[in-house]
Amino acid sequence: MTETAAPRIPTVDLRPWLSGDPAARARTAETVDRALQSAGFLLVAGHGVDPGLRRRIRSAAQEFFQLPDAAKKPYAVRVGGRGWLGPGAEANSYAEGVESPPDLKESLSFAAEEPTGDAAVDAEWFLPNVWPAEAPALRPAVQAYLAQMRRLSDVLLELLGAALGESEDFFTQHTGHPTWGFNVNWYPSRERLGAPEPGQFRIGPHTDFGTVTVLDRQAGKGGLQVFTDEGGWEDAPYDPDAFTVNIGDLMARWTGDRWRSGRHRVLPPPADAPAEELISLVYFYECDPGTSVASLPAPTGRTAYGPVDSHAYLRAKLDAISMPENSA
User: Fold this and answer.
1) How many CA within 13 A on the CB side of residue 239?
2) Domains of the chain in sequence order
3) How far apart are CA 311 and CA 288, in angstroms?
4) Closest CA to 13 of 145, 224, 159
5) What's the rounded Cα separation, in Å, for the pair 206 and 225?
6) Considering only CA atoms, which of 274, 215, 263, 275 is closest in space to residue 239?
7) What digits encode the pLDDT tens for the residues 136-193?
8) pTM, 2 dp
9) Cis upstream peptide for 299 (omega within 30°)
């Protein structure tokens, strides 16, 4: 009998990790380490996040996205702001130095807002969120969801610390007052947009920028693809009850490239499903402003990067994907 190969992107059930059983926790950490070396992606089940919140956010956001552009325009912002990222605002492929047409999406964007007391830091990273009056059900659902995302992300970072053979607080000691971003991404239909330009995607190929990304997605023909050296571009596995989790550039750098920043893209709206529209909920977790990120030494790390200021790095990446002709 031949042994079935482990999937490159496995489903990790968090319940054994949370159980406190040493053997179960060690197995979970080992699975995570293997997966992040291959693709930088996991599916995470047993997370305990209320599925009703996801449904309510999508319903409220859909009300906003269906408004005419003139009604949405007062909320328009640049990438990294708090408000509406309209058509043409963003092209993620630029983060890889590749020119492309703008991504075929709109977003409602939220971010950390609780002040630190440092005026300069707060002015850049902790401004108040903007809540569209046209979608009154959005704010309570998003705020409840964000509280659960923050808790889940710290659990994931504790697991990642153990997976590296470090203490569980190796990363969370740097998330006492972190920055984060949350995008509700709307991918309109081909019927609405028309045919995409050559090289145009719902989101172009890129890696994320921070530590971990927690994604709640919908299945679709124009959905998420993940890149691995072994398989090239592949459709990401899907489980409606699980989150898709990937690590970003800062985490890859922290591990000295032991783990890869998960490269991914979202396909264009498909010609054979012209009415398909999708909404994704994307939570980007980062770390405290001013955190110095330096590579773990060998044998854990494989590339020796010098220290980098986490938020100088993040700002440069956010600026790179912003389309200047569509600045707010």
Assistant:
1) 16
2) 13-326 (2.60.120.330)
3) 8
4) 159
5) 11
6) 215
7) 999 999 999 999 999 999 999 999 999 999 999 999 999 999 999 999 999 999 999 9
8) 0.94
9) yes
Cβ neighbours around 175 below 10 Å, total: 20
Contact status, residue 126 vs residue 116, Cβ threshold 8 Å: yes
Q: Is 83 left (phi over 0), alpha (psi -120 to 50) or beta?
A: left
Q: For the chain, what is the total number of helices (H) and then of strands (E)?
A: 10, 14
**CB 241 within 8 Å of CB 45:** yes
| Cα–Cα distance, 307 to 55 (Å, whole number) | 41
Four-residue CA torsion sign, 141, 144, 147, 153: negative
Q: Would you put residue 324 in left (φ > 0), alpha (ψ -120 to 50) or beta?
A: alpha
Say which amino acid occupies 75.
Y
pLDDT of residue 6: 59
Q: Please compute the mean of the pLDDT values over residues 264-293 and round it to a whole number.
A: 96
Question: Are 289 and 234 in contact, with CB atoms under 8 Å apart?
Answer: no
* CA dihedral angle for residue 226, residue 230, residue 232, residue 236, rounded to 10 degrees: -30
- pLDDT for residue 326 is more than 70: no
Q: How far apart, in whole angstroms, are the C-alpha atoms of residue 210 and residue 247?
A: 7
- What phi, psi does 246 have (nearest 5°)? -135, 155
Looking at beta carbons, which pairs linking 168-172 to residues 24 or more positions away fall under 8 Å?
A: 171/211, 171/254, 171/287
Tokens of 85: 């990222």
Question: What pLDDT was estimated at residue 20?
Answer: 85
What's the alpha-carbon Rg for the chain, to the nearest Å? Answer: 19
Compute the distance between CA of residue 205 and CA of residue 226 in angstroms, rounded to an integer: 9
Q: pLDDT tens for residues 21-76?
A: 999 999 999 999 999 998 899 999 999 999 999 999 999 999 999 999 999 999 99
